Amino acid sequence: MIPEIGHFALILALCLAVTLAVVPLWGAWRRNLGAMALAPSLAVGVLVFSVIAFACLATAFLQDDFSVRVVAANSNSLLPPIYKFSALWGNHEGSLLLWVTILAGWMAAVATFSQQLPTVVLARVLAVMGIIAVGFLSFSLLTSNPFERLLPSTPADGNDLNPLLQDPGLIIHPPLLYMGYVGFSVAFAFAIAALLGGRLDAAWARWSRPWTNVAWAFLSAGIMLGSWWAYYELGWGGWWFWDPVENASFMPWLAGTALLHSLAVTEKRGLFKSWTVLLAIFAFSLSLLGTFLVRSGVLTSVHAFATDPARGLFILVFLALVVGGSLGLYAMRAPTVTSRIGFAWLSRETLLLFNNLVFTVATLTVLFGTLFPLVMDAFELGKYSVGPPYFNAIFVPLMALLMPVMGIGPLSRWKQDSAARWRAELLLPGLAAVACGLLLPLFGQGYNLWVALAVTLAAWLVLGLARDLHNRIRSAPSIARGLRRLPASYWGMQLAHFGFAACVVGAVAVTQYSIEHDLKMAPGDSETLAGYRFEFLGLARVEGPNYLAQEARFAVTRNGRPVARLAAQKRRYLASGSVMTEAAIDDGLFRDLYVAMGEPVGSGGAWAIRLHYKPMVRWLWLGALFMAIGGLTTVADRRYRRHRAPARAPGGREAAHGTPA
Amino acid sequence: MHPVRKQRLIIVLCVVVFSSLAVGLAVYALRGNINLFYPPAEVAAGLAPQGTPIRVGGMVVAGSVERSDDSLAVRFAVTDYQATVPVVYEGILPDLFDEGQGAVAAGVLGPDGVLIASEVLAKHDENYMPPEVADALEKAGRSPQGQLL
């Protein structure tokens, strides 16, 4: 009965979404206030019914209702309850329901927190999101109904969740990633609403900025979790593979990063308007493309659940409609919103333009590398694969170009700046950064030019940020008061830029200094790696809730002193019979020690063992976490809330806040 | 010329130059770093190049997996039931690698027709076959177990 309620709720959500997509738009066109005012309640209605549907499916999973097809295919009575719940989005149908629910959540959030928007703008924004909701709800209902029953041939037990997905990181990775993906629909909806209304001004940018920042923050956190999961769960210690599925989430992130910075220019200076709109369309289209790539089964990966061609076709058509429709609208309307404000070459505008150029080119090259094999395959020109060397060859120089400019960014002034001022401000940070680059790598394993370069650039960023912070609080009566006076969006920028620097150092250090030994080890053997001695103590049998495992136990010592005890596992899951490697990791801020089991080799209890020494790998994820926290912090900024008080005069107080990007 | 327009023109020129640089870099990077998939039948027919990175995939021949006693070196053969390609690899094989299952090996073909693999990929889960292998089998007109379709 519960699955039927869920199915019915999903149909009702679709009906409400159709109404939301049509009535407020009509109202905005005919200036019918009543029709426009319906939008917020309709948006909340879609959320209520999506949540009911979601709760029904969750109940089916938690109660082991194997008469529901997705439950039978993806869960098992032995599965721990938390994984039964997360199994909901460990499959195509359920993850789509999660997508729809999150979209409805964003719509309801816009309806709730944007009451100060003009009615007509709010109506248009919600209606555009309603159109997207119609697309995804009908996709769910027509091609991938999560509530389909297996009656009367109900299986006695389920097939089990893919063991790779039975992991704490994977419980929250998909929701976070979807929050980001779907969150860009808000920026997209604001952009389309602005095109429909023909009014693109600073107010529009101010409205969409906090939403974009939040979506970007969630996407950063989601990508970070995915990378972290791949590191400890796939059993070979990589943290980024340039796998098409990773690229699918990375492309919206890159475009979103460009959008954030472009929105800053549009809000502060009223420039780059058409470009910002185009980026908003681009970022959301890439989110849709990501969904298509990941969910249509054209790619080989754990994420590719669906292999039904009807589904791929549906998303492809939907993608074509959204991208084609919005670009068509853009072509008709964008020329009317051009700006006539100038800026000097040495100015923050130019630096942010450079940021946009770098991120756009990065997005396009990743897009090219990801789509190239698919296109070649579709036209039967051969089965190619584009590997990490391609992406690295492009990404490394692009980031190396970006970072020198990024160090100047926070210190620069809008409209007109001077080279003399930059020299005066940046001489000290520059010299200090070079010193850092020369000295700090000496603490690693041998001096390495790449690490030196990365440290120099990262130090340049961080010292530039510190210099800027110093400038801003210099005039305050006390440091504490000076720090408190800075707006939240400035702190967000500081955190995110700092996080980026940490990421770069982590990525380069772990790439350059990692040591990996794959070898045959029998109990009693030992191996030394970067000064750490790994001793294979012995094997043990371990019984988990739904698996049996062989456990290899290691003692790690350094100069005779004990460092860690590690127990890596090779698990065989009972329900599916599939085998999984569970790596053992001793983590630290400056190094990870990593042990994973391969397979038994020869006789005498010997195993193929993978030993890793990974310096500074945590910096990557900590850096991404800083970026995410930074993105969320900006939302607390007062200027995003102040227009709720209608009678306050704009301008005036703004100048006192300084002008963070 | 109006200064705003002049500035725009310069920006557009910069964008064009920068993008062409990026495209050049992309094409250069792509040339050395893409590798093409060959079914065993095409390798046997001599269609696959020697000395450049390629991928070869098929079903792992039952009984063909031989491990060395003192290292991680392993030898196996992949087949599409029309031809068989021997593969040597040193390292840890993926969890789902097994005889009678689909696998893809990436590496360089030696003059003796043996693929020296630097990477071996297997299925992602129990029911899943690498698409290249599925395709190669379909071309050969065989089921994964080797029966004629």
UniProtKB/TrEMBL annotation, chain A:
InterPro entries linked to this entry: CcmF_C, Cyt_c_assembly, Cyt_c_biogenesis, Cyt_c_biogenesis_CcmF
Domain Cytochrome c-type biogenesis protein CcmF C-terminal per the UniProt entry, residue ranges: 316-638
Entries under Pfam families matching the protein: CcmF_C, Cytochrom_C_asm
Principal subcellular localization: membrane
UniProt GO molecular function: heme binding; heme transmembrane transporter activity; lyase activity
Compartmental location: Cell inner membrane
Biological process annotations from GO: cytochrome complex assembly
Ranges that cross the membrane: 6-29, 41-62, 96-114, 121-142, 178-198, 210-230, 250-266, 275-293, 313-332, 353-374, 394-414, 426-443, 449-469, 490-515, 619-636
Domain of life: Bacteria
Domain Cytochrome c assembly protein: start-end pairs: 89-296
Alphabetically ordered keywords of this record: Cell inner membrane, Cell membrane, Cytochrome c-type biogenesis, Lyase, Membrane, Transmembrane, Transmembrane helix
Gene Ontology cellular component terms for the protein in this record: plasma membrane
Membrane-topology annotation of the record: Multi-pass membrane protein
Functional description taken from the UniProt entry: Required for the biogenesis of c-type cytochromes. Possible subunit of a heme lyase.
Family: Belongs to the CcmF/CycK/Ccl1/NrfE/CcsA family.
Protein's name in the database: Cytochrome c heme lyase subunit CcmF
Lineage of the organism: Bacteria, Pseudomonadati, Pseudomonadota, Gammaproteobacteria, Cellvibrionales
UniProtKB/TrEMBL annotation, chain B:
One Gene Ontology term of the molecular function aspect: heme binding
Subcellular location: Cell inner membrane; Cell membrane
Chain ranges on the Cytoplasmic side, renumbered to this chain: 1-8
Parts of the chain that traverse the membrane: 9-30
Gene Ontology cellular component list: plasma membrane
Function: Heme chaperone required for the biogenesis of c-type cytochromes. Transiently binds heme delivered by CcmC and transfers the heme to apo-cytochromes in a process facilitated by CcmF and CcmH.
Family: Belongs to the CcmE/CycJ family.
Protein name: Cytochrome c-type biogenesis protein CcmE
Source species: Pseudohaliea rubra DSM 19751
Gene: ccmE
